[in-house]
Amino acid sequence: MTDTEDTGPNGALDEVLQKLAHVDLDRLTREELKPHDFSGCRRYFDQAAFYSRLLVDVGTRALPAEVVGPLLARASDVQNAWVAADNLRPAAQDDWKVVVSNMPGRLEKLLPQFVREAVAALIVAVGLQAAEIETRTSDLLAQGRVQLEVLTGAAATAKEDREAAGAALAAVRAELQNLTVRRQATTFSKAASGHRIQANLWLALLGAAVAGTLYLAFVNLKATHGAPVGTWINLVQVGGAKLVVLTVLLTVIFTTGRLYRASRHNAVVNDHRANALASFEALVQSADPESRPA
């Protein structure tokens, strides 16, 4: 039976989480609902989608029934709320405004329950993965011990056997060291790539904020050029509103600039780490076999 054919609780949970992870939040503010839309529910569904994506990435097929049951119930409640919001048709339902007004309160009760069960499931899933890794590591260590015993026994028979066993052990150690270096280099490379993507996103947002600020300044200058001077009350009201907008834009520019620099710094640091490990591995490979263990 394939994963898509699994109709048990774990399969049902995975199906519900897949739906929640890919909800279209723009459906909450579609044109037919305005001005009474589900904009107040967006943050709730956004959080539900975030935790659902985490659970889908970690995997829920190995979760025990005592974890799957409560999580499936809470996820289904949130999914049902989404279906109710997504399928609402004002033309076909007289009390649609009541449904819209009651939805935030409904989600305010449902979401904490879903988040609590989702976090518990994540802890269990990560623990299961850690246990599996530990089991595999123990098996590898056991196999290594067996091989070491064989090599040690062979070394006791004769000088040639001892030399061969020593060479084999040195090769294993060197390979393990190289494997560790490669894994660390790969980890740092992935981290650098992720930070680089974040830096590009923050840079794009910074550019948009700067462009918005310049555009607002240009429009304001053009609108006020040659305009008659109003009363001081009008001047204070209009000036205050513009000052608030300008302050928000400048705050966005400052914040995104700092985040861009931080992400760019992290990307450069991880690139340096990955390059250092790659250089170390190349140095080890270029050394004489006798000097590699050192």
List key phrases describing it:
294 residues; disordered N terminus; 6 helices; 79% helix; mainly alpha
Can you write the helix and strand succession as a string?
A: HHHHHH
H/I helix tally: 6
Distance between the termini: 51 Å
The quaternary organization reads as: single chain
Q: Could you name the ranges where pLDDT drops below 50 across 5 or more consecutive residues?
A: 1-5
Q: Helix- and strand-based class?
A: mainly alpha
- Biggest sheet descriptor: none
Radius of gyration: 30 Å
Overall pLDDT level: 76
Label the overall shape: flat
Helix content: over 70%
Number of strand elements: 0
Taken as a percent bin, the fraction of beta residues is under 5%
Structural notes for this entry:
With 294 residues, the protein is mainly α. 79% of the residues lie in helices and 0% in strands. It is built from 6 helices and no strands. The chain has helices at 9-21, 42-58, 65-86, 96-155, 159-224, 232-286. Helix 2 runs parallel beside helix 4 (96-155). It is flat, with a radius of gyration of 30 Å. Mean pLDDT is 76; it is low at 1-5.
